[in-house]
Write a structure and sequence with these properties.
Two copies of one chain form a homodimer.
Chain A (H helix, E strand, L loop, with lengths): L18 E2 L2 H10 L2 E7 L5 E7 L1 E3 L2 E7 L3 H7 L3 E14 L7 E16 L2 H15 L3 H4 L5 H6 E16 L17 E9 L3 E2 L9 H9 L10 H6 L2
Antiparallel strand pairs in A: 1-8, 2-3, 2-6, 4-5, 5-8, 6-7, 6-9, 7-8
Chain lengths: ~230, ~230
């Protein structure tokens, strides 16, 4: 199956032209994200949303946390969850208030958790999670001890339904606003990386896998000493 | 009231030293964010989480969308929602897999929506929302027509309970890992802005309020023409 079949809960109703249901699109967004917001219904019947680190493995999301934590327990019990991931790609400045927008890529999915219990399963899932955040880091660091592994709850959320929604491109001003004497356009954004900050107990240089990772990421410009001068510039 | 009183649903149980319940901290995080993930319980009793743009106004969050949209209807009906906002400040690279982490600032809150119905209420809320995203933009652009205002659903979510959770600083390696011959530290991250991309129908230069806004934001470094050379550098 390369496409999710939308149901009433996962079908995008508002601006359906921005919706996608194919796995290639949905999984590319999930693979580009770092934080997911997991929503569940608590014992009292109310909604709870919690931000977590995650990684995708096939048709599952891997989520870890303290064993016995509320979200871990809920997921381990196999209850349903909804998960939202959103990446902001730019502010879209139109000539009318109505057409202000944001460029983004987002996924809303529905799934069901299961606890990973054997040390082998947990190790593999933690490897996927660590490698998603920084490729090469799992092999570089000291692996978990049995005690650490035991303290860590790891769940896999099977993705049952999912929809992506996205917007890209310039502002969509109405015909009658096109010639207003105003600037319009996009302020592109990205999660960018600054200069690495070694810890006091760091030994040796920045390892090659971290250098290679940073070379692939958007980077932060060095802070400008006289930002106020630049602000006044034309 | 300058502090929220945690209840069982809003009290941070895991790593409680990272939790804050004071409004100053919680509201500063909400004011720094752009996208909130709103969770609710749908008619079938299942969880749904949807990403939205938002702004804080006093003890409320303002959220807009197509009138008649699912989230707008749910919020307008006064049902309870949970809202999650998370800002990633850096990857925390420890010497053990167990201590890998992320620096972040997050808020999980619980609230109840109400529809804003009069044109005056809606206009004021949309002004707050637009100004949160880009200060100065509301006065710069063409205001909404009565027809546009009528098509826009605007709700205010009263914040009833909230908790912030955050992590800052270097990796927390255990005593016995301190001297492992490995690099450890933080890769700082921020949502950064690239060079403005004028639309084909832009008229005139980048206006002063956009220049001033960009001068206050983290900026993207210019893309490097030979990233692969740099990757190979020491």
């Amino acid at each position: 199956m390369s496409e999710f079949t939308p149901t009433p809960r996962s079908r995008v109703r508002h601006l359906p032209r921005r919706a996608r249901y194919d796995k290639a699109t949905i999984y590319a967004i999930l693979d580009a994200g770092l934080v997911a917001h997991v929503g569940f219904v608590d014992d009292s019947g109310g909604p709870v949303v919690i931000p977590v680190l995650y990684a995708r493995r096939g048709d599952e999301l891997i989520v870890h946390g303290a064993r016995g934590g509320r979200l871990q327990q809920h997921l381990a019990a196999g209850h349903e969850v909804s998960v939202s991931v959103a990446l902001v790609d730019g502010l879209v400045l139109a000539k009318s208030a109505f057409n202000q927008s944001v460029n983004y890529r987002s996924v809303v999915l529905f799934g069901r958790g299961r606890a990973l219990t054997s040390p082998e399963e947990k190790l593999d899932a933690l490897r996927v999670l660590t490698e998603h955040i920084l490729p090469g880091q799992w092999a570089y660091v000291r692996p978990p001890t049995p005690k650490e592994l035991n303290a860590t709850g790891v769940v896999a959320i099977t993705i049952l339904e999912a929809a992506a929604k996205m917007r890209q491109g310039p502002p969509g001003d109405a015909e009658q606003d096109q010639d207003l004497p105003l600037w319009a356009g996009v302020l592109p954004t990205a999660l960018a990386f600054g200069a690495p900050q070694p810890a006091a107990h760091a030994r040796g240089p920045l390892p090659p896998h971290v250098q290679a990772f940073l070379a692939r990421q958007p980077r932060l410009a060095a802070p400008r000493p006289h930002a106020s001068d630049e602000e006044a510039a034309p």
